[in-house]
Amino acid sequence: MKRIVILSGAGLSAESGLGTFRDVDGLWTRYDLEDVATPGGFARDPALVHDFYNARRANMAAARPNAAHEALTRLSKHGDVMLVTQNIDDLLERAGATDVIHMHGELARALCHACGARWVAPPVMSADAPCPVCNAAATRPDVVWFGEMPYHMDRIEAALARADLFVSIGTSGTVYPASGFVDLARMAGAGTLELNLAASGGRFDAVREGAATNVVVEWVAEVLDDA
């Protein structure tokens, strides 16, 4: 089987009931992103930020993996496949995937802004909760906010440099650094494929349009049949 790097975005989890950034009446539209998804917003009003992510954590707990999560899990257990996700939900793991690279962090994890400690987040976090390591009241969700560097970039870029195929699923891919992944893959000689509800306009060799539970499941079945 080819060496495959897969980048997934919000479109992968949309059919599980977790809305994308662009949903007209979604959770994101009821908040100003400057207030809830930036370091400055957290500094101004940590209670508001925790309220926002507590709501997202509750949404995640109520959601279930869909057929696309399950298909990617099957694929990841065969051959050299790296699963990279921009999503902060745990639906790939709950579908059975292991070693998922969360480049934007995880809702299920907490981070101490003071000492850098990380631990499993409780369902509800608060601004005055002490860090279990340094006891500072500086706990925040372990997610990457606008203006912060995504996690695991060295590992992702190394995998793209040796990949035979890069696949982008359910993401516009327009935000740096993910926006450069397709070009890194192409420069390394890899094929590129987009699976998305609608084409993003990126420089992909091929595009398949449709809901993730259709196009991802169909593509995975083809890859496994050819393996």
TrEMBL record:
2 residues (Tyr-53 and Arg-56) present in a large hydrophobic pocket are probably involved in substrate specificity. They are important for desuccinylation activity, but dispensable for deacetylation activity. Zn(2+) binds at C112, C115, C131, C134. Its cofactor is Zn(2+). It is an enzyme of class 2 (transferase). Keywords: Cytoplasm, Metal-binding, NAD, Transferase, Zinc. NAD(+) binds at residues 9-28, 86-89, 170-172, 212. Pfam families: SIR2. The gene is cobB. GO terms for cellular component: cytoplasm. The keyword NAD applies. It is found in: Cytoplasm. Binds 1 zinc ion per subunit. It catalyses: N(6)-succinyl-L-lysyl-[protein] + NAD(+) + H2O = 2''-O-succinyl-ADP-D-ribose + nicotinamide + L-lysyl-[protein]; N(6)-acetyl-L-lysyl-[protein] + NAD(+) + H2O = 2''-O-acetyl-ADP-D-ribose + nicotinamide + L-lysyl-[protein]. The active site is at H104 (proton acceptor). Residues 1-227 form the Deacetylase sirtuin-type domain. Its EC number is 2.3.1.286. One of its GO terms (molecular function) is zinc ion binding. This is NAD-dependent protein deacylase. Belongs to the sirtuin family. Class III subfamily. NAD-dependent lysine deacetylase and desuccinylase that specifically removes acetyl and succinyl groups on target proteins. Modulates the activities of several proteins which are inactive in their acylated form. InterPro entries: DHS-like_NAD/FAD-binding_dom (IPR029035), NAD-dep_sirtuin_deacylases (IPR050134), Sirtuin (IPR003000), Sirtuin_cat_small_dom_sf (IPR026591), Sirtuin_class_III (IPR027546), Ssirtuin_cat_dom (IPR026590). Substrate binds at Y53, R56.
